[in-house]
Design brief:
The chain is α/β, with parallel strands linked by helices. The chain contains 16 helices and 11 strands. A 7-stranded mixed β-sheet has the order 7-6-5-8-9-11-10, sandwiched between helices. A hairpin with a 4-residue loop joins β1 (226-231) and β2 (236-242).
Amino acid sequence: MLAAVFTCAACGLVYELALVALGSYLVGNSVTQASIVLSVMVFAMGAGSLLAKPLQGRPVVAFAVVEGALALVGGLSVLALYAAFAWLDLYVPALVVVAFAVGALIGAEIPLLMTLLQRIRRQDAGSAVADLFAADYVGALVGGLAFPFLLLPTFGHIKGALLVGMVNAVAGIAVVLWLFRHRVGRVPRAALWGAMAAVLAVLGGTYALADRFEVSARQALYADPIAVAERTPYQEIVITRKAALTGPSDVRLFLNGDLQFSSVDEYRYHESLVHPVLAGTRGRVLILGGGDGLALREVLRYPDVRAVTLVELDPEMIRLARTYGPIASLNRHALDDPRAEIVNADAFSWLRRLGERFDAVIVDMPDPDDVPTAKLYSVEFYGLVKRALAPGGRIVVQSGSPYFAPRSFWSIRKSVAAAGLETTPYHVDVPSFGDWGFVLAAPGTAAPALSLAPGVPDLRFLDADVLRAAAVFPKDRRARDVDVNTLVHPRLVEYEGEEWKDS
């Protein structure tokens, strides 16, 4: 009986973690997703415990039914939420309903399990509670560790939840029916075995079709055909490719659903990001992010750049940038250049241990729409970047859209300045992004000049006239009163969530 408690507790925690992780992948803002799931589930567990009180008269049948329902709802939860996100645009309401249903069923387990334990061995309430919670909490530990280290990397979100649902059904129904087989009538026993078989059939059949469903649901999120889809321990990487009757195809990279570049106009973004900062000294260059190799491509166009260090968290992104033909061709195999050193590490942690200095630092990170990413736009992070600068060095930060997210943009500029750097904000038009902004920064008492180096390579988009215009912001998008972004107060998550939702 305690083994069944252990297994069911492990399954319950996996359902909980799966809902949190799925929300983080699909909509970002992991803190909000975790808060919704945890608060709704804990509330529902209390409600489920109360609702289970009338069922204690027939605890064996009731517990088997509860576990069968939990296996079915929990096992199908990730698939149902993915469908709600991809086709119905009802993700948050569906998340609340699913979290409540799973939580209520988990809560109903406790009073029924207490009754069953007392029927096996009569003991005082304190000892029964101790046995029950010991098995429950140890099971939760195993489930909590199994999800990120075994289930998610091996089976993925959808298949992992389905597999756990099948284990839940067997542990909850078969074990209990075996232990109490003499206390259940023939007809109810046959009905429960049939119900378990039906639950396993539904979950097993869905498992067999899960890959096909995931392909269809994922494609519904993107306008162009998906060429590559990878889910890594850090993010979901999707590359789409749209063929053109004339001219090159449009290759697009998405990380967790957010567009990173389009091959049609990426040169506008990367020329604007790289070449103004390299107008200063550039013997040794550091790129933080930019695992697609496109910023690196622009840096390596300068023959006097002696060495470039690129720090990218996800090794799978580096592998794709090296080996996937369309991207490798686009970055001109920059990652294999002998001047380039590739480091797979978290940029924040790597900077804290850094003992060398660079002439130019390029910060090319994804937009800060959740807390883990927002730390890479914090005052503390920019302080570490400043410390990595050699005398006379300069920094550039991709800063989002001053049109669609003006508070976010000016918060980034203010955060850079709060780290003790003088700043020059600028923006350009990138058709696939819209109006997009950057912040050029350097230590000292004067803002760094926005210019191009005398020996700048031949560029397709950027020139002196474009740069002069880039420094001018329209009246409705000029600097505004915003807070800085820090580790303790990640204001950017709030700004990003509000502004991009409204846009």
